[in-house]
Specification:
Layout: E1 2-3, H1 13-20, H2 26-32, H3 61-78, E2 83-88, H4 90-93, E3 105-110, H5 116-121, E4 133-137, H6 140-144, H7 149-166, E5 171-175, H8 190-194, H9 198-215, E6 218-220, H10 223-226, H11 246-262, H12 278-282
Parallel strand pairs: 1-3, 2-3, 2-4, 4-5, 5-6
Helix pairs in contact: 7-9
């Protein structure tokens, strides 16, 4: 079971159009905002005339928030087993539903362009849900906007403490911030991203691992799987140096499956270690997808 959360900024009409035309998502949007998707009068089939093309209305940021909120409400009413929440930015948003581990029910609350400050404001959407697991990944949009490491970590700590208070029975997992592709990036706002070094991201992830330990939640270090020899995002796993390709999501999905089977409550006692990247072989590190606990510090 997969419930796909959607959000796109008004500056991205092409992606909005993709969502509007998605047969799984458009009914939800139509329910929340009936006038968002224009209707077309049916016409008799004709070999001469092509069907009219209707440009979808671009939803505002607040309207997309309403979509996410309504989706969370729908999930809380169904109360599915093994509910797992993806809470994050566009990397989480575009996780292909068919590539998510199938042994869980998924609620995708990803938001394009999301920052930790914005995420804090919508944690209440999950108040009535009963997730078994909550996966959090955010930070790259903060960094490219000039947010300091200290402020980002403060937001993360507040987010973790709020989720722990509201969902005391849920397992909370902080996922590492992925590196970017450096000079090879073709993504918009490339220059702003280049101002954020992958070394800064690496050091910030170390601090996130420490924060996870202090807050007694889990930490999933994905970077060994996504980094090349220079510590940049592997070109075979990305579409533009920032967002992930299908192969990238497959790597992420496999890491989630392994983590679920070895680290979460009820998992097997055998701890599975993921293979290190070439970059970390060279510097002697041995990264794993193991949680940040007093017995195991992955960084």
């Amino acid at each position: 079971m997969v419930l796909l959360g959607v959000s796109i900024l008004t500056t991205q009409p092409e992606l909005t159009k993709r969502l509007m035309n998605n047969p799984r998502i458009s009914p939800l949007i139509a329910k929340v905002w009936p006038n968002a998707i224009p209707s077309v009068e049916p016409v008799a089939p004709s070999v001469e005339a092509a069907p009219p093309e209707v440009a979808p209305t671009v939803l505002s940021y607040d309207q997309w928030l309403d979509v996410l909120k309504q989706e969370a409400v729908a999930v809380s009413a169904k109360n599915p087993e093994r509910l797992t929440v993806l809470l994050g930015d566009s990397l989480s948003l575009w996780f292909p539903p068919e590539q998510l581990p199938s042994d869980r029910s998924w609620l995708n609350q990803g938001m394009s362009g999301e920052t930790t400050t914005a995420m804090l404001k919508r944690l209440s959407f999950l108040d009535e849900t009963k997730p078994q697991t909550i996966l959090v990944m955010a930070g790259i949009n903060d960094l490219k906007s000039g947010v300091s490491d200290e402020d980002l970590l403060t937001n993360y700590r507040t987010m973790v403490q709020t989720l722990k208070q509201k969902h005391p029975d849920s397992e909370l997992i902080i996922q590492s911030i992925l590196p970017h592709g450096g000079e090879a990036m073709t993504v918009e706002e490339r220059d702003r991203l280049l101002a954020v070094s992958n070394e800064q991201i690496f050091k910030l992830n170390q601090k996130l691992a420490t924060l996870a330990k202090e807050e007694q939640v889990l930490y999933l270090n994905l970077n060994p799987l996504f980094s090349n020899n220079e510590g940049m995002l592997r070109s075979d796993l990305t579409t533009d140096g920032l967002h992930l390709s299908s192969a990238g999501y497959l790597v992420w999905s496999t890491a989630l499956q392994t983590f679920s089977q070895t680290q979460l409550r009820g998992a097997a006692s055998i701890q599975t270690e993921m293979p290190p990247s070439n970059a970390e072989k060279s510097n002697g590190d041995k990264p794993t997808v193991q949680p940040e606990t007093p017995e195991n510090n992955p960084q």
